[in-house]
Specification:
Length: 249
């Protein structure tokens, strides 16, 4: 079995699966490209290997403050968490901070201090921070390419120009960088099914047409086979696979 490493390699593999070059597959190049894009989109959204978990940072600009959102790229499919911009969990500590005093007075020598005590106190401080400061509230829809953060933009105590925002999210795996994507078994089968469905849709326009030798085109059967195969693969991925971690997007 040939190892597929490119977009064109995936198309050629699917055409061979459908009978090329023995049979002429009546699908235009533009249609082939469309079906590959359709397969990739479904794979990125639903397959456990279709996205990667990332952390990315963004420096706040005056445009962001005016818009009250930060821009995102097309490949961001989900947002899990926005790190606290300011508050008790940031690096803006001073000598009056509880965690600073704890480390200074009680943990100067870990060899004589119980780690259980330290863990209990840090958990307690974290719980207090959660109740008093809460989490950063945000809204995200991947079709907008915007991350709305519900804070008082421009307020020096919350978020202002020059601050850095760190976001945890999911990004679509780029097949141009990670070429093993093209050889993923489910993606190859699904692309082949979509191209078969397209082939059948093209031939359906000539249903009943008799070719020399008494051969007739049966586009309806090819279309239905492709549709059934694609639906079965979609059901397998959505209903029979391990669930993905929930994310907003």
């Amino acid at each position: 079995m040939a190892h597929v490493t490119t977009r064109q390699g995936l198309i050629d593999h699917s055409l061979r699966e459908l009978g090329a070059p023995v049979l002429e597959i009546n699908v235009a190049e533009e249609q082939l490209e469309d079906r590959v894009e359709e397969a990739l989109e479904f794979w990125n959204i639903n397959h456990w290997d279709g996205t990667e978990r990332i952390y990315f940072s963004h420096e706040v600009t005056q445009t962001d403050v005016n818009n009250k959102w930060i821009p995102l790229t097309d490949d961001i499919y989900g947002i899990m968490r926005v790190m606290p911009v300011r508050g008790a969990q940031t690096a803006n500590k001073n000598i009056f901070d509880l965690q600073y005093q704890l480390r200074l007075n009680d943990l100067y020598d870990l060899t004589s201090t119980s780690i259980i005590y330290y863990t209990s106190v840090m958990n307690h401080l974290q719980m207090l921070d959660h109740f008093l400061n809460g989490h950063v509230m945000y809204r995200f829809n991947r079709l907008q390419n915007r991350l709305y953060i519900d804070v008082d933009w421009g307020n020096l105590k919350e978020i202002n120009v020059g601050d850095w925002i760190v976001v945890e999210g999911y990004r679509a795996l780029d097949p141009a960088t990670f070429t093993r994507v093209w050889n993923e078994p489910w993606l190859k089968k699904y692309t082949t099914a979509l191209i078969k469905k397209q082939w059948g849709a093209n031939l359906k326009k000539f249903s009943g047409l008799q070719l020399p030798g008494g051969v007739s085109l049966d586009g309806d059967s090819i279309y239905q086979e492709g549709a059934n195969e694609a639906q079965a693969l979609e059901d397998e991925l959505i209903n029979k696979s391990a669930p993905l971690e929930f994310f907003t997007g």
